[in-house]
Design brief:
The chain is α/β, with parallel strands linked by helices. It is 35% helix and 26% strand. It is built from 9 helices and 10 strands. It has helices spanning 40-47, 87-97, 103-113, 126-139, 156-169, 183-186, 207-213, 217-225, 231-236; strands at residues 2-11, 14-24, 29-34, 54-59, 62-63, 72-76, 144-148, 175-179, 192-197, 200-206. Strands 6-7-8-3-9-10 form a 6-stranded mixed β-sheet, sandwiched between helices. Strands 2-1-4-5 form a 4-stranded antiparallel β-sheet, with helices on one face. β9 and β10 (200-206) form a beta hairpin. The longest helix is centred in the middle third of the chain and has 14 residues, at 126-139. The protein is globular. The N and C termini lie far apart (51 Å).
Length: 238
């Protein structure tokens, strides 16, 4: 269980996160949804210990440190790979440092995305770099896989097929926490959605609950955010 308790983070006196309480169990696929500036990236970076913060973050009741940080992995649009290495060298490095590295999954995903094993990652296209970032996060052997808008630069067909592949390769104990704007695309992939607005959690619902209520995730998001359908019409009449 990953537990976040009363998490707050400020930048130059301005709150980016305020009193966030959230628990993620093993085996969940959870979407983190919010507008630009809602605090999604800040939340993920606080979980990983990249940013100082107030509050508490526990992994199975223990603070996250060197003894358990390998149970978390991160795919970020800012990229965390080694640009001057090839994918083959990445695999060798990860196999050396992560005893639970998933070599068969790595090869399967490299084949799926048709990425070259012997080319320097810095020479990949933007889409290929993002694909490789996701591959490394999924293959590290972590229990909790955090993803921050990982599919920028990928075409819709690649993304759609990838979601299907991901559902097929995840182990029952692996948790994915995915920050995304692609609400309609991920609706059938998520088991739960957490809504963040202005640094606060304003919604937390499972897709099963939405099904029972006869609502789509997009309808729920619009309702929670108070979306006004007439705003476009008013703007055009100015």
């Amino acid at each position: 269980m990953l537990e976040i308790k009363s998490l707050s983070k400020s930048y130059v006196g301005k709150d980016a996160l305020h009193g966030v309480d959230l628990s993620l169990g093993q085996g969940e696929i959870v979407g983190l949804i919010g507008e630009n500036g809602a605090g999604k990236t800040t939340l993920l970076k606080c979980i990983l210990g990249y940013l100082p913060h107030r509050g508490e973050i526990l992994l199975d009741g223990k603070k996250i440190d060197r003894s358990n940080i390998a149970r978390l992995s991160f795919a970020t649009c800012e990229h965390s790979y080694f640009p001057n290495l090839t994918p083959k060298s990445h695999r060798e490095f990860y196999e050396l440092h992560f005893g639970s590295f998933r070599a068969r999954r790595f090869q399967a995903l490299m084949d799926f995305f048709e990425l070259p094993m012997h080319q320097l990652v810095k020479n990949f296209s933007t889409g290929q770099k993002n694909q490789f970032e996701v591959i490394m996060a999924l293959c590290q052997g972590a229990d909790y896989i955090l993803m921050d808008e990982p599919f920028a630069g990928n075409d819709v067909f690649n993304r759609e097929d990838f979601y299907k592949v991901l559902l097929g390769i995840l182990e029952p104990t692996e948790t994915v926490f995915l920050s995304t704007h692609l609400i309609a695309e991920v609706e059938n992939f998520l088991g739960r959605a957490v809504l963040l607005r202005k640094g606060r959690i304003v919604g937390d619902i499972t897709t099963l609950e939405l099904e029972e209520q006869g609502r789509t995730l997009m309808e729920y998001v619009k309702e929670v955010y108070g979306y006004r359908a007439d705003r476009v019409q008013k703007a055009l009449l100015q």
